[in-house]
Design goal:
CATH topology of the largest domain: Rossmann fold
Structural class: alpha/beta
Number of strands: 8
Radius of gyration: 17 Å
Order of helices and strands: EEHHHHEHEHEHEHEEH
CATH architecture of the largest domain: 3-Layer(aba) Sandwich
Number of helices: 9
Number of domains: 2
Distance between the termini: 11 Å
CATH superfamily of the largest domain: HAD superfamily/HAD-like
Shape: globular
CATH class of the largest domain: Alpha Beta
Strand content: 15-25%
Length: 215
């Protein structure tokens, strides 16, 4: 059976706090709303674009059409997807090491797939990613396991050979719902909540070490 690792994107492979905040605040500007701090917007991240915008527009005096706002935010983000966005230290080298050791490397993110794919390409990690699944591709968002189960079946990876690595409780619950093992990234900006990960990692390099030691 193959070895499969599924990474989250935001807060796991990339630090995208300011890129997300820019897209949200440009959307707020479209509705004549003042900008929010990147730190506050970061607390809204992890549950997909609709929840992000619902939380980011909660202070609006008048009702804002959520579907329209999500479309605007996605377009703003797609126009400048890597604004102030960088890979976490060791990410490129770690991905290359995993591929060299014959891991199947995929991404499941609740971020709109259009934006995620642009980021992966512009930050030059696409050569190491076998498949990227994001919001809007027809799969339920994390922590629902549909996308994970699809990847496990496609790449012939048993639950015991499958890992989910992420910085949010949605990632850890995704792993549990799919029968996979998990690594929680404490260096990210998500929230573990009551989820129980198999391991915790304080850096991307440590996450790779855990994967290699437990394959």
């Amino acid at each position: 059976m193959n070895k499969l690792v599924v990474f989250d994107l935001d807060g796991t492979l990339i630090n995208s706090v300011y890129g997300i905040a820019q897209a949200v605040n440009r959307t707020r500007h479209d509705y004549a709303l003042e900008p929010l701090s990147p730190e506050l917007i970061t607390t809204f991240v992890g549950d997909g674009a609709y929840k992000l915008m619902e939380r980011s527009l909660a202070d609006a005096d008048k009702a804002v059409p959520l579907e329209e706002a999500v479309q605007k935010m996605t377009q703003h983000y797609a126009d400048d997807p890597t604004y102030e966005t960088r890979l976490y230290a060791g990410t490129a080298a770690g991905l290359a090491e995993l591929k060299k050791d014959h891991w199947i490397v995929c991404i499941i993110s609740n971020k709109p797939a259009l934006v995620g794919q642009k980021i992966i390409k512009e930050l030059n990690i696409a050569p190491w990613i076998d498949e990227n699944i994001g919001g809007g591709m027809g799969y339920p968002l994390k922590p629902q396991p549909d996308a994970l189960l699809y990847l496990m079946q496609k790449y012939h990876a048993a639950p015991g050979n499958t890992w989910v690595v992420g910085d949010n409780h949605t990632d850890i619950f995704l792993a549990a719902n799919g029968g996979a093992r998990s690594i929680f990234c404490t260096y990210g900006f998500g929230h573990k909540a009551a989820s129980a990960s198999s391991f915790d990692a304080a850096s991307f390099a440590e996450a790779v070490e855990i994967l290699q030691a437990n394959q």
